């Protein structure tokens, strides 16, 4: 992922604006989610790539939680790519190297080196998403 391609993604407000399904529910879930602390350490920049579609139930469960966790964090840049309009990006983050499963959250440092990725659901049943993401990023 190049910095230039990352910048072409939608910001969260742009994503919400273009949503045709589940926008109201997404906003409700985001507002209801706990902030659950930061995904970064002080002074550490984080770029977060999200691959999603507004019709996806797993995305509707997970993405509002992530959005709430990074909301207002000046050290985090979040960009959203729609899976069906960005096959070049989706094909870089396939589940089991063949499935176009969403949501996908990919975390990069300031130099766009991949730190961690999350695809679809936490691997441990019952583990909360916020806890799983913090474990992935070791914060």
* Termini gap: 23 Å
Could you tell me the number of beta strands? 4
Arithmetic mean of pLDDT:
90
Specify Rg, calculated over alpha carbons. 14 Å
Shape category: globular
Uncertain regions spanning at least 5 consecutive residues: none
Number of helices: 6
Specify the biggest β-sheet.
4 strands, mixed
What is the share of helical residues?
25-40%
Strand order of the largest sheet: 2-1-3-4
Range of strand content: 15-25%
Specify the structural class. Answer: alpha+beta
The string of secondary-structure elements, in order, is HHHEHEHEEH
Describe the secondary-structure layout.
Blueprint: H1 3-7, H2 12-18, H3 23-32, E1 46-52, H4 57-70, E2 76-82, H5 87-90, E3 104-108, E4 114-119, H6 129-137
Parallel strand pairs: 1-2
Antiparallel strand pairs: 1-3, 3-4
Helix pairs in contact: 3-4
Report on this structure.
Helices cover 35% and strands 18% of the residues. The chain is an alpha+beta fold and 139 residues long. A four-stranded mixed sheet has the order 2-1-3-4, covered by helices on one side. Helix 3 packs across helix 4. The longest helix has 14 residues, at 57-70. It starts with a helix and ends with a helix.
Features:
globular, 139 residues, 4 strands, 4-stranded mixed β-sheet
Summarize the structure in short.
The chain is α+β, with helices and mostly antiparallel strands and 139 residues long. The protein has helices spanning 3-7, 12-18, 23-32, 57-70, 87-90, 129-137, and strands spanning 46-52, 76-82, 104-108, 114-119.
């Amino acid at each position: 992922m190049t910095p230039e391609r990352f910048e072409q993604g939608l910001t969260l407000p742009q994503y919400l604006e273009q949503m045709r399904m589940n926008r109201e529910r997404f906003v409700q879930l985001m507002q209801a989610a706990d902030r659950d602390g930061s995904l970064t350490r002080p002074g550490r920049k984080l770029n977060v790539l999200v691959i999603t579609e507004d019709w996806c139930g797993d995305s509707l469960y997970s993405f509002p939680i992530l959005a709430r966790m990074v909301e207002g964090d000046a050290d985090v840049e979040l960009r959203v790519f729609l899976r069906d309009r960005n096959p070049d990006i989706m094909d870089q983050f396939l589940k089991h190297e063949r499935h176009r499963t969403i949501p996908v959250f990919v975390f990069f440092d300031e130099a766009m080196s991949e730190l961690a990725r999350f695809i679809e659901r936490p691997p441990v049943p019952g583990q909360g998403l916020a806890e799983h993401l913090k474990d992935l990023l070791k914060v």
